[in-house]
Automatic annotation (TrEMBL):
Residues 86-250 form the Peptidase S9 prolyl oligopeptidase catalytic domain. Keywords: Aminopeptidase, Hydrolase, Protease. It comes from Staphylococcus piscifermentans. GO terms for molecular function: aminopeptidase activity; serine-type peptidase activity. SUPFAM superfamilies: alpha/beta-Hydrolases. The keyword Oxidoreductase does not apply. One of its GO terms (biological process) is proteolysis. It holds the Pfam family Peptidase_S9. This is Dipeptidyl aminopeptidase. Signal peptide: none annotated. It comes from the Bacteria. The keyword tRNA processing does not apply.
Length: 256
C-alpha cells in the first residue's frame, strides 16, 4: 500500500522533503501535500484544511507549524480541489480522502503516533473521522462542530451549503449524517479544543457546544480559549497556540 504518485515540490527545507502525492480513493485520484522528515518518522500529523477551493488551501507554511525533525505532516486537498478528481461534498464521501490517506501512512509508518488537526471547516471533517482512525488525539482549532449551527450563523455561506449539502429542512438526512457528536463516546481518542473569543467565521459557541457534550459523556478533553483573538490568531497568540499543540501531543504520547 502506497501513494500512486509522488511529485517533488520546490520546497527548500533542511529537515523535510516536500511532495505532492496522489492516491486513489473511491476510484478517484486525490492529491495532498506531504512534508516527510529526513530523520525517522515517529509522529504523523494530519492537517484538515478549512475553507473551500482556493480559500484555506493547504500550504507549506501551515504544515510546517506542526512539524519537528521526526514528524511527518500531511494535508489532503479533498476531492474536487487543487487538481484532485471528484467533487467536494463538505464532509460527505470526501471523508474517505482522510481515512484512505491515514491507512496508507499507518501502513508505511506503523509505529508512529498519529494526531489530527482540524481547522475551521476541517473541524467537522476530523470529528467525523478521528474515532475510526488509529489516532492518538484530535485537535479542533476554530472548528465547526455542528453544521446546523454553522448554517444559522453564517448567512453568507447558506448558498454554498445548500449546493454542497442541501437545505437543513429539505435534506435533513444529509445534515443528520454529518452530526459528528453522535459518533463520539468516552472511548474515542482525547480532544483538544482551541478557539478564539472574537472568531467571526466560526463562533466560539461551536467550541462550547462540543466541550459541553464531551463533559456530559465523560470524554477526555482540554480547552484553550483565546478570548481576544479571531479566527486566525495574531502572531504572538499564534505562537502560544502552537506551543500548546506541541505540548499536548508530547503529553499524549508520553502517557501512552
Amino acid at each position: 500500500m502506497d501513494f500512486i504518485n509522488r511529485k517533488r515540490m520546490p520546497i527548500d527545507l533542511a529537515s523535510h522533503i516536500g511532495e505532492e502525492v496522489t492516491y486513489e480513493v473511491d476510484h478517484l485520484k486525490v492529491k495532498g501535500l506531504m512534508l516527510s522528515p529526513k530523520e525517522k518518522v515517529q509522529r504523523i500529523v494530519i492537517y484538515l484544511r478549512g475553507g473551500k477551493g482556493k480559500v484555506g488551501r493547504v500550504r507549506t507554511g501551515r504544515l510546517l507549524q506542526f512539524s519537528d525533525p521526526h514528524t511527518l505532516v500531511f494535508g489532503p486537498y479533498y476531492r474536487g480541489n487543487n487538481g484532485s478528481e471528484g467533487r467536494d461534498e463538505f464532509s460527505g464521501n470526501d471523508l474517505h480522502d482522510v481515512t484512505q490517506a491515514m491507512d496508507i501512512l499507518k501502513y508505511l509508518y506503523p509505529e508512529a503516533y498519529v494526531h489530527l488537526v482540524g481547522f475551521s471547516r476541517g473541524g467537522l471533517q476530523g470529528l467525523l473521522t478521528f474515532q475510526y482512525l488509529p489516532a492518538d488525539s484530535y485537535i479542533i482549532w476554530g472548528g465547526v462542530s455542528d453544521l446546523h449551527l454553522m448554517y444559522e450563523e453564517r448567512v453568507d455561506l447558506r448558498g454554498m451549503l445548500r449546493r454542497m449539502v442541501g437545505h437543513p429542512k429539505k435534506n435533513l438526512d444529509a445534515y443528520e449524517k454529518r452530526e459528528a457528536l453522535q459518533y463520539i463516546d468516552e472511548n474515542s481518542p482525547p480532544i483538544l479544543i482551541i478557539h478564539g473569543g472574537k472568531d467571526k467565521q466560526v463562533g466560539i459557541h461551536q467550541g462550547y457546544y462540543l466541550a459541553e457534550y464531551l463533559e456530559r459523556i465523560g470524554h477526555r478533553y482540554e480547552t484553550f480559549y483565546q478570548m481576544q483573538e479571531g479566527h486566525v490568531p495574531r502572531p504572538e497568540a499564534l505562537k502560544e497556540v502552537l506551543e500548546v499543540i506541541h505540548k499536548w501531543m508530547d503529553c499524549i504520547e508520553n502517557n501512552k
